[in-house]
Amino acid sequence: MKKTIIDILATSEIHKKFLALLPDQPILLDLDADGALYALKKSLPLENDDLYDGIWAAMYLTHLPEEEIHSLLDVVVTALIPGGYFFCSFKYGKGSLNKDGKFYDLYDEESFNNLLARHTDFAITKLWHRGTSEAGANGDSLYCIIEKVVNS
User: Fold this and answer.
1) How far apart are alpha carbons 87 and 89 in whole angstroms?
2) Hey, which of 107, 121, 133, 137 would disulfide with 93, CB 3.0 to 4.6 Å?
3) pTM of the full structure
4) Which of 15, 103, 115 is nearest to 66 (CA)?
């Protein structure tokens, strides 16, 4: 599989937090890019030299129902190196929302921890809530950086 290098500038605080965890010149995948998840699923299983240091999924996941998020997390953990990181973000809140013809699953700290509990190969590195005008049911977002646990 051809590796996709994420095209983000380390200008925002979120990018800086994520990139600071990764090695120099990391191999990254942007799941928000058109077709990236499809290409990744199609290429599974990956060889060790095809694994990623980091995977980025900004508001992409918030439109998926919970069971699809579980499936996606299974794919992500397979594609990350041990000790690799996954960034994801959601609209902040409880339950779900249909707005302007779009579906949103909302997460707060508790519901995200419950979601991730099924995925024992992941550990939360940083989980934070931020009120912004860019996302969320009321302009709020939940940001998370999770690490693939290194099994000993």
Assistant:
1) 7
2) 137
3) 0.85
4) 115
Distance CA 104, CA 84 (A): 27
Domain span at residue 124 reads 106-152
Residue 142 domain-assigned? yes
User: Is 59 within 8 Å of 135 (Cβ atoms)?
Assistant: yes
Are the C-beta atoms of residues 92 and 140 closer than 8 Å to each other?
yes
Distance of CA 81 to the CA centre of its chain: 15
Tens digit of pLDDT for each residue in 4-62? Answer: 545 544 457 788 889 899 998 888 888 877 778 888 888 888 887 789 999 998 877 88
Q: Residue for token digits 């290098």? A: 5
Q: What total number of domains does the chain contain?
A: 1
Q: Report if residue 20 sits inside a domain.
A: no
Q: Domain for residue 89, yes or no?
A: no
